[in-house]
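User: quick one
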Amino acid sequence: MLDGSPTGYTGWMNYEFFIFDEAFYDAILNTFLIVLSLLLITVFFGFLFASLLNSDIFLSNFVKLLYISPFLIIPSVSALLWKNLMMDPINGFGTFLLNILNFEGIDFLNEYPLGSIITMLSWTWVPFSTLLILTSLKSIDKTMIESAKIDGANHFQISLFIILPNILRSINIIILIETIFFLAVFAEISIATNGGPGTETTNLPFLIFQKGLQNFDVGESSAGGLIAVVLANFVAIFLIKNMSKNI
Amino acid sequence: MIPKLFRSVITLAIGILLFFPILWMFITSFKTEIEAIKFPPSFIFDLTFSNYFEIQERSNYFKYAFNSIIISLGSTLLGISLSIPVSWSLAFIKNKYKEFILLWILSTKMMPAVGVLVPMYIIFRDIKLLDTLTGMVIILTLTNLPILVWLLYNYFAEIPHEIIESSQIDGATIFQEITKIILPLSLPGISSAFLLSVILCWNEAFWSLMLTSTNSAPLSVFIASFSSPEGLFWAKLSAASVMAVLPIMILGWFSQKQLVAGLTFGAIK
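Assistant: Done. Structure below.
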């Protein structure tokens, strides 16, 4: 389309090319693997860390800064930082740690590519869920817990009826916002692995980018873009239904 | 219960673990190149500041930083001034399609940006906005507008209608109503929106990587250029990274509260 080779309309050809490409299925699978595993990881650790930070500890304000910092890092910086300084098979800090524990160094990005990408993304996004859950924990009215105690509620009942509903609300919001961002992960993949090895870390946004701006097949790339939009909308309908109840 | 000291130590240890990659990057930026790739890594070494000077000399850090500032502030100011009237009308004017409009605005955010990459690229090329600051300001304003509208709407919706009505009885014009009553009352919301938008624009990588090259490239592109073999120079890479993330990290540290309110579209304050 851009260089003018086959001209005119092609009917469904672009969609056929895109859908019958094996990379397409890998990309769909990877996209969903990334979204699902990250949602689980961020909610689990977010809850754990938020509970720790919410308890009465020394230097709590300073410690909180340590927890939220990774979220403020530019994605391209975080990708390069992990790719080189942390995960490099020869000089990286990961190899150093493994050596201390008497293991051989691992080429993380080649042997566990998707796992490495998910690790990087968790590092960025666990602080986000921690911060949100922590805020919702702090917003719980202390007098409500006190009066529940006076009325004879035990520890379990307080957690179930006062604390849990509050956290569930923030978890709902976390799922909504994170899904938006995780469906569109791009910079980390493009910089750290370039979709590889093979198609092991290619997700849908990266595949579309590859078709369009690396192979210059604009028609096929647009077809892929439309497929991504439709898929995202299925997720969006589900999430928005959830959201209108919660916000 | 677990004793306080023990809990504090565990929490601090996890915090240091999470912060470690950033700390290591900071430390590496003061090493010489040979020291940086030494294995096992050295913890005690002679400090050098030469990386920072060399980065500025070789790739003109300040130009990228300037672009980042212009793009972040420009699209934030434009976005907020566009979203104030939208949120105002959604919050205060009776409209039975209100919920539908709000969800429709948000649904554009659900669409992965890459879905419109090709048409956007062609449009930008044809109207000569590729690699211009104006183009970047426009595209980032558009990407963040749904979030800003939602955020401000959530704050405006909390202002009691009685205040607005009594001001209308006293003869306030719409402009006075917005500038003298609504804006002062929702100042925390606007500062959240401002902050969140600046951070999102500063850290934005997708459109910056796709639509800019030399003239209008912000810091996220400056850093991405180190993913080439040049990235093998770890000390310089680290110094460049520190310079790219430090401004926004400090801003985020001092404004966590507004950040949370912004990140949840004002649903958690």
